[in-house]
Design goal:
By secondary structure, the chain is mainly α. 50% of the residues lie in helices and 3% in strands. It has one domain. A two-stranded antiparallel ribbon has the order 1-2. It is globular, with a radius of gyration of 17 Å.
Length: 155
């Protein structure tokens, strides 16, 4: 049985191509699978889950699950699905329906993450710097509740 394929929304295909590191581009990711996983994680972070409407059939074409597995992302897909459903049965390796459900969840979070990324990257020519700013803002984000005196609550 052939492994299922992960799809990308047609309206996000241009952004995905720009994020890919190819000759003549300023992309940062080696494969489409890397972009999809990053976007799905970004979608979860921003709690943005958007169903796919039209699907890209050319570049990027639907990506085989085998690519994700070979890059070690199978556990990430399962973790995303479990965090979304809170159902341990979604992790089953023996039920093909749970695999379909996991892929749908991944695609929807990736679509939402790509939508959020498009907003964050708007106006940038080279995405490298903007992506680093996004990652650093998450990495060095401070919990505002630990401060003794916070004037922001009066705004």
């Amino acid at each position: 049985m052939a492994l299922p394929r992960i799809k990308v929304a047609k309206d996000k295909a241009d952004l995905v191509q720009k994020l890919l590191d190819t000759k003549g581009t300023t992309g940062n990711f080696q494969t489409y699978a890397d972009i999809v996983i990053f976007a799905a994680c970004f979608g979860i972070k921003h709690q943005k889950k958007v169903p796919l409407k039209a699907i890209s059939q050319s570049e990027p074409a639907p990506i085989s699950l085998e690519v994700f597995i070979s890059r070690g992302y199978d556990w990430v897909i399962k973790l995303i699905a479990f965090s979304d459903t809170q159902d341990i049965n979604i992790l089953s390796a023996y039920d093909s329906q749970t695999e379909v459900a996991r892929i749908k969840i991944l695609e929807e979070y990736a679509n939402g993450g790509l939508e959020q990324l498009r907003e964050e990257l708007r106006g940038a020519i080279d995405y490298t710097e903007r992506l680093l700013l996004i990652l650093n803002s998450e990495r060095f984000a401070e919990d505002k509740t630990d401060e003794e005196f916070d004037l922001s609550r009066f705004l």
